[in-house]
Amino acid sequence: MHKKSLAELSALLSSGETSSVELTRYFLDRIAMYDGDINSFVTVTEEQALQSAAQADKMIADGKAQVLTGIPLAQKDIFCTQDVRTACGSKMLDNFIAPYNATVVEKLNATGMPMLGKLNMDEFAMGSSNETSFYGAVKNPWDLERVPGGSSGGSAAAVAAGLAPIATGTDTGGSIRQPASLTGLSGLKPTYGRVSRWGMIAFASSLDQAGMLAHSAEDCALLLQGIAGFDEKDSTSVDRAVPDYSADLNKPLKGLKVGLPKEYFGEGLDSKVGAIIDEAIAEYQRLGAEMIEISLPNTHLAVPAYYVIAPAECSSNLSRYDGVRYGYRCEDPKDLSDMYERSRGEAFGYEVKRRIMMGAYALSSGYYDAYYLKAQKIRRLISADFEDAFSQVDVIMGPTAPTTAFKLGEKADDPITMYLSDIYTIAVNLAGLPAMSIPAGLADGLPVGLQLIGNYFDEAGLLNVAHQFQQSTDWHRQSPAAYN
Amino acid sequence: MSLSADEVKKIAYLARISIKEENIHAYAENLSGILDLVAQMDAVNTDNVKPMAHPQEMIQRLREDKVTEVNQREQFQRNAPATEVGLYLVPKVIE
Questions:
Q1: Does the distance separating the beta carbons of A378 and B44 come in below 8 Å?
Q2: Catalytic residue among A19, A133, A151, A216
Q3: B11: which chain A residues are within 8 Å (Cβ-Cβ)?
Q4: Is B37 left (phi over 0), alpha (psi -120 to 50) or beta?
Q5: Residue ranges per structural domain of chain A
Q6: What H or E segment, with its residue span, contains residue A271?
Q7: Model pLDDT, residue B48
Q8: From edge to edge, which strands make up the β-sheet containing A167-171?
Q9: Residue A40: which of A190, A241, A179 has the closest Cα?
Q10: Where do the domains of chain B lie?
Q11: Is CATH 1.10.3470 what the domain over B5-42 is classified as, yes or no?
């Protein structure tokens, strides 16, 4: 069951060969059996999941089912879920019971997808290895001594180990694509504004976007259909028609123009990863795509600009955690200032504190122009690089991450090395473009992801390009042997 | 760029985060490292570049000024560390 696509599960449900309750029970059993080692779930909502499944079965019996009805999923613990703890990987929100549902959650609930539980993540989505979580590191199902990537590490590990058919994630600088790459999954970050951010706990508001981690592009298309669309509750939601994301999946790629940015194939790229990406590109040529070398000349400035903009927005967004209205409050504060400082000092982890402090510094009087304004100008240059590229090509391809999954602890003490693991993904968030990572092969038994970057709102095009590769290769069907 | 212990304390105060004395050195080192990384931006002339705050060139949507939410004070205050008769309690600020 855990190897089936969403379309196959949907067919089994509508023909009555299985029920949503059976399917949900099956995945809950797998979570109980395997997640002790992996640590991908922070909360399992068994009772609620089985209730929703029973309701989904009724929807199916009443002829009110949609494609996704009855298929269970797991939510990254960054999405507010009413009456269920939403901790965002932080001690700060360890006791926070969300009073409402995020729009993404609301939409998927209404479709009749039972929620299996909430998934582990880097604290407030700040991290690239899932080691900054208050709830402990998540292990990569391909090798339990390695990280699954981050910040959507729980989402990646749960789907890779077959503990959930599909999971939501969020991507601020690569947090869907990098973990998808490190665990052999298909992950999609939609265009900024395509999916509502309402009820998604904010990290960097001009960069955050919700998406999913799945076994295939076809599965991503189905879930995107369920969550995309205008939401008046999100002030940056874009009011634009939602196309049928599955309609173009089978379009042949003959004549597709693919840009290969030379900056994505230089120093820093592991040679084994590079060889697999080259092979994937050759496969696309066999499928009729035309390769064009392009340049994104400001690529090297993406990480520096990001580590001003993201911390600046984070320091502003996370000022809400003051120990007054919700979240952690320190014991016996001696005055208001002591309460703010100790509540935040005691409940935020090191990485979060570092980023808040970096942001506070970049925004502080006398430094604003040198850091924040400068970074916003660099952001314009990076965005313009993509604009130029898309005047020549339909899609951009390259590696998602410079290496395969690294060992737990390997980069945990060195923020800069950790930041550079997102070197190929960050520019996309600065520009607000949609992008995917799809499995392209294995290097020494570990998955390698190919990144596909599309033009604004061309999710359908990206999914088509990804799906065609998955029709002619079977890398997306590989799974870690221990969880077969 | 190398931040001093005093600068780190000042930044921590700006961010309203208490940090332990024994960790100040590590913060100074890490934040200085990030500032060095960020300094790569200085090599680029951006005099005539318009800053980009956001991926979408959009105008802030406005809505009609009318009440759309119902009062959910009790539900929201269930998450509060300390409340009394519908009010949030904080340490005394006025003597």
A1: yes
A2: A151
A3: 357, 360-361, 364
A4: alpha
A5: 6-255+393-483
A6: helix A271-286
A7: 96
A8: A41-44, A115-119, A73-76, A167-171, A209-214, A186-189, A435-443, A446-454, A395-399, A257-261, A290-294
A9: A179
A10: 5-42
A11: no
pLDDT tens profile B39-90: 999 999 999 999 999 898 778 888 899 998 899 999 999 999 999 999 999 9
Contact A235 B92 (CB under 8 A): no
| Three-state secondary-structure class, residue A448 | strand
- On whether the CB atoms of residues A346 and A328 are closer than 8 A, the answer is yes
Number of CB atoms found within 10 A of residue B5's CB: 12
What is the pTM for the complete model shown?
A: 0.97
Q: Burial letters for A174-197: b for 16+ Cβ neighbours within 10 Å, e otherwise?
A: bbbbbbbbbbbbbbbbbbbbbbbb
Show the DSSP H helices in A89-152 as ranges: 103-111
Instruction: Tell me which amino acid residue A172 is.
Output: T
Q: Dihedral of the CA atoms A98, A124, A436, A268 (nearest 10)?
A: -170
Catalytic residue (choose from A10, A52, A76, A152): A76
Interatomic CA distance for residues A446 and A443, integer angstroms: 5
Closest-CA residue of chain B to A369: B51
C-alpha to C-alpha distance for A360 and A345, rounded to whole angstroms: 15
- Residue of A326, A415, A312 lying closest to A359 (CA atoms): A312
Cβ-Cβ contacts under 8 Å between A and B: the total is: 162
Q: Which A-chain residues 122-181 have CB contacts (< 8 A) with chain B?
A: none
Look-up of token digits 């945990």: A412
CB A213 within 8 A of CB A219: no
Residues in Cβ contact with A375 at an 8 Å cutoff, skipping those fewer than 6 apart: A304, A305, A306, A308, A309, A312, A362, B38, B41
pLDDT tens-digit readout, A420-472: 889 999 999 999 999 999 999 999 999 999 999 999 999 999 999 999 999 99
User: What's the CA gap between A341 and A329, in Å, rounded?
Assistant: 10
In A, residues 424-453, which contact B (CB 8 Å cutoff)? 430-433
| Under 8 Å between Cβ of A302 and B60 | no
**ipTM value:** 0.96
Q: What is the arithmetic mean of pLDDT over A349-365?
A: 96
Alpha helices in B39-95 (DSSP H): 73-77
Residue B95 has pLDDT above 80, yes or no: no
Q: If you ran DSSP here, which 8-state letter would residue A202 be given?
A: P
| Cβ B8 vs Cβ A387: under 8 Å | no
CATH architecture of A6-255+393-483: Alpha-Beta Complex (3.90)
Please say whether the beta carbons of B17 and B23 come within 8 A: no
- CA atoms of A340 and B17, how far apart (whole Å): 7
